[in-house]
Q: What sequence folds into this?
């Protein structure tokens, strides 16, 4: 059975997250339905590189799946997209570089971007893609310095939704970078993996620093001590979060 | 009666254009309704800098209007936005620099951007904001050279929807510039004024050049000879077009 790799983009607001759930519209669900149709009705399972929560967007989620037939990838991506709702699309699709290539287990890192719009007014065109903070009370330079403490190998257990902590909550953050361009604030984090709600709790904690309620070094202390979820900031809303990119070494995209 | 100037952004898909039309949702209509409410029920007329067609977006439309009361502009913009649908917003609002300041007659130039996405696949997030061309048959460098012929004072009568030609169809284009960044093509045109559908017919004519059906110099000939609408290219769809900016000298925005 030939295996395929697809890069997938979606509008978070339309879906109850990535993962299959009975009775709900999920991205994995609409992909499995569309691919099963192309597979002559035989069920196709789709493995995603990461689970995104309800409302979270993706620019570059990655998934792998097997089909009975040997497809030309350029024909397959068109046939697949024709069977998907407009709110999600495969943007790239290739044959897997090897038969056991796996979207999740072969990923070497994941990149997320959280977008904030900090101004009293907003452009309607971006409203569903950012977290809109109206108040004029943020010092984002403080948050920029604070986010650097995330880099390295740390126990991120405190930055995980209560009850969803895995046995091992140690993750490595390769790069954490906050930029401000006019009213737009972008937090880009690249890591080995992310816990449930991790990016959104990181953003909520950086907000405490930006508002002057905490010092930048407080972020460091949340990672060093045996901190718990309630010690961190609030969980930011899903609509500002994008799963931006999944990295592989080598990238599968030009292997065919 | 104090006069105000507002910069207005909207999602084209939601409106039947800028201009008031009975029984249809228009941007001018929802602004007049919202402002009339704030004016104690006394009707407020709103003058826009330019009319946009149904489906055309605006980043920076500008309008002027008079209210009975003397408002603090910072309070007025919040009250106004609270009474508008999410698909449109005032993004800036100030008192007019003089009592006869007029959004349309005082404008010295207008800027439009037409966005094209030229690739076999698309990100769902941008789908409603671009014209999506799937074919791999365009040479945008040819269109870039062609669009330079638009600069200067010309009779744009051929680039106007049939039946909508004004008596004087001479306009000045101060700058015309086509850029390509990956799969995204942006045509930015700044001019003294624009005829009905002018940007969309320009885009359709540049498409003929990009596809190799016409030479770049053909654009020049459409402006020099007594050309007619059917001599030009097709009218591009409204969803790729943004009214980007209206220019005033001096800009009214920091006068108060």
A:
């Amino acid at each position: 059975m030939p295996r395929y790799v697809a890069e997938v983009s979606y509008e978070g607001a339309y879906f109850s997250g990535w993962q299959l759930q009975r009775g709900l519209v999920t991205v994995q669900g609409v992909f499995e339905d569309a691919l099963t149709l192309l597979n002559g009705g035989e069920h196709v399972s789709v493995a995603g590189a990461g689970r995104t929560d309800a409302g979270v967007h993706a620019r570059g989620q990655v998934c792998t799946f097997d089909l009975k037939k040997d497809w030309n990838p350029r024909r397959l991506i068109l046939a697949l997209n024709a069977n998907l709702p407009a709110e999600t699309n495969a943007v790239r699709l290739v044959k897997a570089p090897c038969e056991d290539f796996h979207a999740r287990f072969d990923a070497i890192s994941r990149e997320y971007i959280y977008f904030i719009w900090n101004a009293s007014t907003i452009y309607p065109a971006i409203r569903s893609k950012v977290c809109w903070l109206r108040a004029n009370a943020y010092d984002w330079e403080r948050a920029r310095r604070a986010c650097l403490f995330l880099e390295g190998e740390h126990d991120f257990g405190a930055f995980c939704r209560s009850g969803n902590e895995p046995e091992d909550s140690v993750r490595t953050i390769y790069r954490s970078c906050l930029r401000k361009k006019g009213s737009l604030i972008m937090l880009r984090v690249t890591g080995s993996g992310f816990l449930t709600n991790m990016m959104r709790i990181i953003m909520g904690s950086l907000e405490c620093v930006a508002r002057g309620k905490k010092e930048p070094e407080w972020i460091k202390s949340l990672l060093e001590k045996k901190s718990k979820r309630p010690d961190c900031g609030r969980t930011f809303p899903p609509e500002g979060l994008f799963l931006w990119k999944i990295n592989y070494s080598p990238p599968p995209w030009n292997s065919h």
Q: What stands out?
A: The radius of gyration of chain A is 19 Å. Chain A has two domains: 3-106, 109-244. The domain at 109-244 of chain A is CATH 3.30.70.660 (Alpha-Beta Plaits). The mean pLDDT of chain A is 96.
